[in-house]
UniProtKB/TrEMBL annotation:
The keyword Hydrolase applies. Coiled coil: none annotated. InterPro entries: AB_hydrolase_fold, KANL3/Tex30_Abhydrolase, NSL3/Tex30. It holds the Pfam family Abhydrolase_11. This is Hydrolase. It comes from the Bacteria. Keywords: Hydrolase. Residues 29-210 form the KANL3/Tex30 alpha/beta hydrolase-like domain. GO terms for molecular function: hydrolase activity.
Length: 215
């Protein structure tokens, strides 16, 4: 499925319920990028949609993953351990092609990717809008999750993200790309020096370059 161009949808049973994968195939795919959503949104997030449109043209198949709670129509995300269980459950479907899998996600999905990367044998981690701390509570840091990923990691962070601005991140074995003016969803204000389309292009350009550098 990942070796031919096109889109397909697949449901997967996990210990947390039924998950759903929307595949965006690539001709002669060399990597699979699996990305999940955050606690407050779905796979229609602007960054996930853009990556699914752009990366397949660069040899990276994209799998946009909906956690079971979203598939079931629930409005609130469950506890982290349940999110991790859902991600573990879909992993065999992501890895069945035999291609290296980049584990990724936005916000809460990024945390899941970091927490499970080593255990699942992820090739790398893509963290979009990593929620370093709850808004206004920098003392409640989640840096350990990011630093503990154990594989090559790229963080793409909005310059005005209330969950953690780029300058708040600790030093560590990860790359960080700032999207100027961007909030937690990479939305930029109209007064910004860059347009919304330019901000999204910065995201996709950074991920294309990074995936191209992965062995």
């Amino acid at each position: 499925m990942t070796k031919t161009a096109g889109t397909a949808t697949e449901t997967v049973e996990t210990d947390a319920g039924t998950a759903r994968i929307t595949w965006h195939g690539a001709k002669k795919a060399r990597l699979v990028l699996a990305v999940s959503h955050g606690a407050g949104g779905g796979i229609e997030a602007r960054d996930l949609v853009a990556l699914a449109e752009v990366l397949p043209t660069h040899g990276v198949a994209v799998a946009r993953v909906e956690q079971p709670w979203r598939v079931a129509g629930k409005k609130l995300a469950p506890a982290p351990k349940t999110l991790d269980a859902g991600w573990r459950g879909i992993w065999p479907a992501l890895a069945k092609s035999g291609l290296p899998v980049i584990s990724g996600g936005r916000s809460a999905g990024a945390r899941v990717a970091c927490r499970t990367a080593t255990e699942l044998g992820a090739h790398a981690v893509l963290a979009l809008g990593f929620p370093l701390h709850p808004p206004g509570k920098p003392e409640k840091s989640r840096a350990e999750e990011l630093l503990g990923a154990g594989v090559p990691t790229l963080v793409v962070q909005g310059g005005n993200d209330p969950f953690g601005k780029p300058e708040e991140f600790p030093d560590g074995a990860f790359e960080l790309v700032e999207i100027p003016y961007g909030d937690h969803g990479f939305a930029v204000p109209k007064r910004a020096d860059i347009s919304q389309d330019e901000a999204v292009s910065l995201i996709t350009d950074a991920v294309v370059e990074w995936t191209g550098s992965l062995g």
